[in-house]
Design a protein that fits this description.
The chain is α/β, with parallel strands linked by helices. The protein has ten helices and six strands. The two termini are 25 Å apart. The relative contact order is 0.17.
Length: 264
């Protein structure tokens, strides 16, 4: 299970217990996020190798069934990279609310003066806040939204911060912004999603701004009509904070379906 940009593995902490009875669940912090250290030159290809490396180190490729991926937002891009690097290695990938918009919509977004998601200055040091309450007040979701379960939002915020000399600061490192965030990558993300080898499914918030009803049509237009697409009612981009029970129900149904298919 892989989290979104600047997030951490604990976004799955309240999902994992519903899966742990039937599956070995692995959620890890991407490099330079959460409690993971900084890795030099950690581009998307390196993150794909890391995902494969985590699975290999834990023996997940040693027998049947194959491991499945559940990846949210930026983590879904990492998952697609892993599928490309190791065709046939995974049982499937649940792509959870990854930004998938038509090029014309992205061009209009940029024309409005917006930068690409995940942009930032790698040379700007993290701000230090005098106390936890002040730091907590600066914690925001991207894109901005209210959440269905506020106590889960508080949990995410707490584990996004760490005590440092002089107060509190974020756990992620500015080094995460040292990456190729070219517009061409965003313009081709739908094509990459459809073309990635192996079984894929999409789980998205029915009210998401990043995977919309038109995104479904876009995926179909690109040739992905065989990709199962599940909309979670009442959820926006942050599925696990909006509708955690509905989200985990969708994940469980997919995993059971894939396991049954592998057993036939």
């Amino acid at each position: 299970m892989t989290h979104g940009f600047l997030a951490h593995a604990r976004c799955f902490a309240f999902i994992a217990p519903f899966l742990a009875k039937d599956y070995d669940v692995v959620a890890y912090d991407l490099s330079a996020m959460g409690d993971s250290a900084v890795r030099e030159n950690c581009d998307l290809a390196a993150r794909g190798r890391e995902m494969i490396g985590v699975a290999r180190a834990l023996g997940l490729f040693d027998g049947a069934p194959k491991p499945a991926i559940v990846a949210h937002s930026f983590g879904a891009s990492v998952a697609l990279e892993a599928l490309e690097q190791l065709p046939g290695g995974f049982a499937g990938a649940a792509i959870c609310d990854m930004m998938t918009l038509r090029p014309a919509m992205l061009e209009a977004f940029w024309a409005g003066g917006h930068t690409s998601p995940g942009s930032g200055n790698p040379d700007k040091p993290l701000r230090i806040y005098p106390d936890f309450a002040t730091a907590r007040g600066r914690y925001k979701l991207s894109p901005p939204q209210q959440v269905g379960e506020p106590f889960l939002f508080d949990y995410m915020a707490y584990h996004s911060l760490r005590r440092v000399e002089g107060g509190w600061s974020w756990k992620f490192s500015p080094a995460v912004f040292k990456r190729d965030n070219a517009r061409t990558d965003w313009l081709t993300i739908g094509t990459k999603l459809v073309a990635a080898p192996g079984r894929k499914a999409i789980i998205h918030g029915e009210e998401s701004l990043l995977f919309t009803r038109d995104s479904r049509d876009f995926v179909h237009d690109l040739g992905g009509k065989d990709i199962q697409i599940i909309a979670v009612p009442g959820a926006r981009h942050h599925l696990m904070l909006d509708q955690p029970l509905a989200f985990v129900t969708a994940v469980r149904a997919l995993l059971a379906q894939w396991h049954e298919a592998a057993s036939d």
